[in-house]
Design a protein that fits this description.
Helix content is 31%, strand content 19%. The protein is an alpha/beta fold. The protein has a single domain (6-271), classed as Arginase, Chain A (3-Layer(aba) Sandwich). 43% of the residues are buried. This is Arginase. It holds the Pfam family UPF0489. InterPro entries: UPF0489 (IPR024131).
Length: 272
Amino acid sequence: MRITQHGQFNPYAGSKQFSEIYQHDPSRGRLINRFSDRGAGYTPLVVGGIEDLDPAVLMRRDQNLLLDIAGVPAYLFEHHSGTAYAAAEAIEFDVMAKGATLFHFDAHPDMESCGKPLDDSLEALFRFFSSAYNEESFIWEMVRRGDVAHIVWFTSSPGPMFINGNERDLIKAFPHITVTKVSEQQVAGFDRTIFTSLPRNQRILDIDYDYFAHLKNQHAFSIVDLLQFMFRNTGLVTQALSPEYIEIRLAAILAAELMTSVHRIVSLVNKI
């Protein structure tokens, strides 16, 4: 089913702000984020459907997506910096609360300073974080705004040029923040109550598919199992294909398979 009307997008149903920001585009037959419909330089952020979860569609990289996956608002961006905008938007739409915990699956920290504080408007955040050049600093802004208070960073085996960010500078600037690292070897034994003990509206699952670029095969099953569990039990999911750091075909397949599998699992459970 192609989602084209506000009322059909369940995670944000009833939000006046959603209907103000996502407006019908006759040429696409879709709802499109009006901040992204400003000419050259912006990849459209559109409300999509399950039919978009085709690797061939994702590989075109001609749109960013907002999807309803098992009742969870799930964003898929080309560049990871869109996460900061997605979180701010979900808070504005009253689906998420400030002070959330970010469960951050990424080969990079992405915790560099973004310099001077940004204007807090959604449009300003969208414009700033639409650029791939700000991928290293989006978490800093999420912490500064109070959207995120804790970070659980799931690290993976680094490959060439996989260094950015500096979590120590983030902690120094914001002493209240906590950053916990979980290596790929530790995923199988990860205490899931760290996740489930939080209110759902304070759980953000954040996946950069470059996490899988150099992953050791023996840990893959445990990682996918945890991601599926978190995905269907979180308040918000943000994802990035990050073609600069992982082969785009692999990233597209991983994203499509993860979201399709979660949709299938929840659909089966609901039929029981």
